């Protein structure tokens, strides 16, 4: 009955298929007639405007009041998160860029940096340190400007032994960056082989995040 009411035969489709947003593939509509952009997580759907089945999404009418439309949700109440138009499963680890790594947790996601954020102070052998982007490398690195020469130094290179005693100094660890799930805490300290101030990070978790109802995706 639904097909008879909503599907016209023969099919009349536009010559040019629609241009879909990132992460939304072209699929056949509910009548199997014309190509449309698949609806993504949380977007409205109906018989004609179908959800992206490749992401495990179905048109969920369970939370729709009488007379209103439904939304795309995970099948079997499966949780996940959407980042830049792509849906990740709960617990899946992914990298939106080479500088950060994230994990999908309970409908949200937590990220940690992959690049060091140390602070380099001027020294006798490097009076003018400067951090720059290096072609072909993801993380920026320090260079030393001495007179008119630019000396590229790898941040992981072994430095000569310190010629002076290093008095240890550091701040307390900050509060966790998230109130639930995996986050990170930071502090500034010189407790390293270079006796140099740097920002240090470590993972932390105050408590697990409560599970979100499938009807309200994050």
Second-tier CATH architecture of the largest domain: Irregular
How big a fraction of the residues is strand?
Answer: 25-35%
- Approximate helicity band: under 10%
Question: How many DSSP helices?
Answer: 1
Gross morphology: elongated
Keywords: Cell adhesion, Disulfide bond, Secreted, Signal
Family: Belongs to the CCN family.
Organism: Oriolus oriolus (Eurasian golden oriole)
InterPro entries: CCN, Growth_fac_rcpt_cys_sf, IGFBP-like, Insulin_GF-bd_Cys-rich_CS, TSP1_CCN, TSP1_rpt, TSP1_rpt_sf, VWF_dom
Description:
The protein is an all-beta fold and 218 residues long. The chain folds into 4 domains: 1-76, Omega-AgatoxinV (Irregular), CATH 4.10.40; 81-113, Complement Module, domain 1; 118-145, no CATH class; 169-206, Thrombospondin type-1 (TSP1) repeat (TSP-1 type 1 repeat). 2% of the residues lie in helices and 34% in strands. It is built from 1 helix and 16 strands. The chain has one helix spanning 2-6; strands at 26-28, 35-37, 44-45, 57-60, 70-74, 80-83, 86-89, 93-97, 100-105, 108-113, 117-118, 129-132, 141-146, 149-152, 182-189, 198-205. The longest helix has 5 residues, at 2-6. It is elongated and about 85 Å long. The model is unreliable at 147-161 (pLDDT under 50). Its main location: secreted. Pfam families: IGFBP, TSP1_CCN, VWC. It is found in: Secreted.
């Amino acid at each position: 009955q639904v097909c008879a009411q909503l599907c016209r035969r023969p099919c009349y489709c536009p010559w040019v298929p629609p241009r879909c947003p990132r992460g939304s593939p072209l699929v056949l509509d509910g009548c199997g007639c014309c190509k449309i952009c698949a609806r993504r997580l949380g977007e409205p759907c109906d018989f004609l405007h179908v959800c992206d089945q490749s992401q495990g999404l179905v048109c969920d009418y369970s939370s729709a009041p009488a007379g209103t439309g439904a939304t795309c949700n995970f099948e079997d109440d499966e949780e996940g998160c959407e980042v830049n138009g792509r849906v990740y499963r709960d617990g899946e680890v992914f990298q939106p860029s080479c500088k950060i790594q994230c994990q999908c947790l309970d409908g949200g996601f937590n990220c940690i940096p992959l690049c060091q954020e140390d602070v380099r102070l001027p020294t006798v052998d490097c009076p003018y340190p400067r951090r720059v982007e290096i072609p072909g490398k993801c993380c920026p690195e320090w260079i030393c400007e001495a007179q008119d020469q630019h000396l590229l130094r790898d941040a992981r290179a072994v430095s000569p032994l310190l010629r002076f005693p290093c008095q240890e100094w550091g701040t307390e660890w900050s509060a966790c960056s998230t109130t639930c799930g995996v986050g990170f805490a930071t502090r500034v300290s010189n407790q390293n082989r270079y006796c140099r101030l740097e920002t240090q990070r470590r993972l932390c978790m105050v408590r697990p995040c409560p599970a979100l109802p499938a009807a309200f995706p994050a």
